[in-house]
Amino acid sequence: MAFDPRLVPEVLWRCPVCGEEESLHVVKKRTGILSSKPAIACRQCNARWEDISGESMTLVEGDEGHQGRRSMAEWSATVYAEKLILNAEKDVDTAVLLRDGEGVIKKVSAAVFPVGRLGGTRSTGRRYLVYTPNFKIPRSSPLPKMQPVDHGELVLTNQRIVFDGNRRVLNMELSHLLSAEVRNHFLELGYGDRKYAFHLGKESPFKWKTYIEAAFQAVQEQRRKPRTPRRTRKKATEEKTTEKNAD
User: Fold this and answer.
1) What is this structure's pTM?
2) CATH classification (class only), 104-224
3) Are the C-beta atoms of 13 and 150 separated by less than 8 Å?
């Protein structure tokens, strides 16, 4: 099976040279009057890669410090090594009713597909491949022949993941999320006793997986912080009230 270069922008969702998200795309390099070879280019910094395979590719245009042939593991390490900055914004156009202290990190139009309960997946006639960006990219990855059960908007906040569908709303607290994986172009989330597979249109499921993992980690760190005992909080409130009355 031939390697599909369209998988590269999906796995490398951030340009390894300039760091711009969703900027890589497939272009054609002319090799003759009627022949061409695929190349990868960045819309932001104009970096360009050629001689692409599932194992490696060569940067021929762009930052001289990055030029040359490197393995996909090395290019992936550049993309995933940079720490994400999670900006949770309140003023975002979304139908999801936000809680106090909650803000939107990412949102995208999505379709949800049937997967099944944890411990087994519904038969689709083919086996899933789990992508691991730190290794070589799979040679092929056809979409499974399944029909979506709902369409809507997938929203990641600093507290939860919400799928606001036409038929139903799925609400997944980040603190109780069991898994986040990428399988055959799908973002697969494990929550409760079920798995949910989301197709995110043109956005990379690897990008979403990375952001979800970062948001999950932030929630866990917040939960590990020591809380002020109730008596101490009450005493502090009384002291502030006394000071205010004294003024």
Assistant:
1) 0.78
2) mainly beta
3) no
